[in-house]
Amino acid sequence: MKYKDNTASQSFDLAGMFTLALRLVTGWTYFSAFWRRLILTNKLDPDTAGYIGEKFNHFLPNALLIKPGIEYLVSNEQLLWWFMLVFTIVEGVVGLLFMLGLFTRLMSIGVFTLALGILLGAGWLGTTCLDEWQIGVLGIAAGFTIYLSGGGRYALDHYTGRRAINEKRRNIFSIIGSCNLNLSSKALQRTALTGAILIFLLTLATNQYFHGGLWGKLHNLSVRPHITISNADLKNNRLTFTVFRDQGADVYGSFLIAIRLKNAQGVIMMEKNAEDLSTMSQQQIQNSYVSKVKTGKHSLIIPLGAKARLQFNDSVLSELPEGTYKVELTDISGAQWEQTITK
User: Fold this and answer.
1) Can you tell me whether residue 121 is helix, strand or coil?
2) Can you give the pLDDT at residue 164?
3) Distance CA 221, CA 124 (A)
4) DSSP character string of 130-161
5) Secondary structure letter of residue 44 according to DSSP
6) What does the pLDDT look like over 58-110, one tens digit per residue?
7) What pLDDT, on the 0 to 100 scale, is given for residue 3?
8) Do residues 75 and 53 make contact, with C-beta atoms less than 8 angstroms apart?
9) Which of 27, 56, 298, 305 is the 20 to 30 A CA-CA neighbour of 271?
10) CA 67 to chain centre
11) Which strand (E) or helix (H) includes residue 37?
């Protein structure tokens, strides 16, 4: 039996009423992103602190599946700006219409998609708890739930749907709006159960992948900074290597206060202290992404997701004999990272 009778209409009205709080709160979480970035302050200005493109860059190091797309965008700043603008507008439209209950089911697909993007890109972030992962999985669950329930009586769909008087228009509106879903009782039960199970499995899988939440050792990659050193090269009087900040909190950078080159016996052959690093020229720092490695007052600052090729010229380097050396970086916290290099 299909849900076309008056009892079915009442059931969907009740379902939409029961999920009203969920729809309003979820809608605000997305509309508020638009409100914060464009109305309360301008976070789409690349030249100001808090530029949303840099926040997007923070997703890069440990994103799941969509990492190549993020890297492409943060490597092309103009394209990234347009993407952030469109993304912000989409969040605003989806969030507002979701709260109003206009084209509710279509907007719930938008909520589901936006939440999935947040989950895959930023599910590993969160210094004190699993912030972005929770936002992602709850947004996915909310989008799916509201798609099934529709907006109910407290939605604009309830009034606009009455105009879909013929069967074809009503069937279309049931998919994008809030009318009764044109499914049998058994099909509706299977859809709800299958969707719930798949979303729960996605929740468990991402919880384990990002945080080890099911078995093994729990980990939070947002707590302590970590820097990967790669492509170190030592020729003549020049030392070059690439740094990439792939872990740690997104609200502050890693502060390098020392870079040393040691020989195989651990003897320091070259050292750059905090003052040297804080006065590096722009020619010595070749950034790859929108989040940039830059000099600070007392250190070299490496924000989360930043990647740069660093260059140091020193006459002592040309006098080094052939052999194995070690590049060692020291953070203000005392953490150290190193890579072996052969001349």
Assistant:
1) helix
2) 61
3) 7
4) -HHHHHHHHHHHHHHHHHHH--GGGSTHHHHG
5) T
6) 999 999 999 999 999 999 999 999 999 999 999 999 999 999 999 999 999 99
7) 41
8) no
9) 305
10) 10
11) none
Q: Which phi and psi angles does 253 have, rounded to 5°? A: -90, 175
Sheet strand arrangement including 285-287: 226-235, 238-247, 307-313, 285-287
What's the CA gap between 196 and 114, in Å, rounded?
18
Q: How far is 228 from 208, CA to CA, in rounded Å?
A: 23
Determine how β-strand 254-263 pairs with β-strand 238-247: unpaired
Cβ(41)–Cβ(69) under 8 Å? no
Span 130-153, mean pLDDT?
Answer: 96
Where do runs of H (alpha helix) occur along 151-272? Answer: 157-160, 167-176, 185-211
The residues, any chain, with a CB within 8 Å of residue 334's CB and separated by 6 or more, are none
Question: According to CATH, where is 2.60.40.1930 located in the chain?
Answer: 226-342
| For residue 165, pLDDT beyond 70 | no
Determine the length of the chain: 343
Tell me the pTM.
Answer: 0.93
**Which of left, alpha, beta for 56 (phi over 0: left; psi -120 to 50: alpha)?**
alpha
- Mean pLDDT across the stretch 323-342? 97
Measured distance CA(176)–CA(151) in Å, rounded? 11
Q: Which residues pair with 285 in a beta bridge?
A: 310
Nearest Cα neighbor of 23 from 106, 95, 103 is 95
The single-letter code of the amino acid at 338 is: E
What is the overall mean pLDDT for the chain? Answer: 94
